[in-house]
Amino acid sequence: MSIAFFDSGIGGLTVLREAVRQLPNEDFIFFADTLHVPYGPKTKQQVTDYVCEAAQRILGESVEALVIACNTATSVAAAELRQTYDVPVIGMEPAVKPAVEMNGASGRRVLVLATELTLSQAKYMELVSRVDDHGIVDSLPMPELVDHCERLNFDPEELSAYFRGEFAKFDLNEYGTVVLGCTHYPYYTQLLEQILPAHIRVIDGSVGTVRRLAGILNERGLTGEGSGKVRFMNSADDPAYNEKLRRAWDILNGRGT
């Protein structure tokens, strides 16, 4: 059996990379909903319908767990999937809690980058309300970044100009941590670290998500007998998009540009 990872596009590969690192004895399926990417600009009901449709197909592949490697999809559809299926469903949330904890002593603020839909959901607002006792968390929607990523656009000059334009709205000296609240965004971690002030840390939720996955697998006695093999699928059954997934996977793992 395999562990399935699901996202609207290539972003969830950043979470899968962490899973391969932490769980080398598992096999994996990565499913991209290429028919409907990106999710960020769509309505809550649209995304819920897309995620439920994709989950039905994914779980027909005989998987032992499903990771929703997408903050937007998690925020609108994770609860419904958990009510519908017995298989463990692990979702994502922006790493706001660890970011707040990192900045508690310094007095610096936290900036969360995410899609508009993620930032508008009650799940995100409740998360911030629960952990942000001192009102240090700010949010910045960056919907264009998903489009850049899906086009495999990693041009440093163009993306640097884009980031600098967005960050011009803030005094970055006030911030200690930038949280990448969309799984597409970690493709640009190194670039962000180059253009942000040196004191700012850039984090995302992949490590914590995979730790939760590993804990659930251990609790249920689902010991892996695989070898880290990854199989790619997409909702359009498009071989060209599977090749794009492989290319993006190689880029993440330092085997291409």
From TrEMBL:
Keywords, comma-separated and alphabetical: Cell shape, Cell wall biogenesis/degradation, Isomerase, Peptidoglycan synthesis
Active site: 70, 182
Keyword Cell wall biogenesis/degradation: yes
EC id: 5.1.1.3
Domain of life: Bacteria
InterPro entries: Asp/Glu/hydantoin_racemase, Asp/Glu_race, Asp/Glu_racemase_AS_1, Glu_race
Catalysed conversion reaction: L-glutamate = D-glutamate
Annotated substrate binding sites: 7-8, 39-40, 71-72, 183-184
Pathway linked to the protein: Cell wall biogenesis; peptidoglycan biosynthesis
Coiled-coil residues: none
Keyword Cell wall biogenesis/degradation: yes
Name of a matching Pfam family: Asp_Glu_race
Family: Belongs to the aspartate/glutamate racemases family.
Biological function: Provides the (R)-glutamate required for cell wall biosynthesis.
NCBIfam families given in the database record: glut_race
Matches recorded under HAMAP family: Glu_racemase
Protein name as it appears in the record: Glutamate racemase
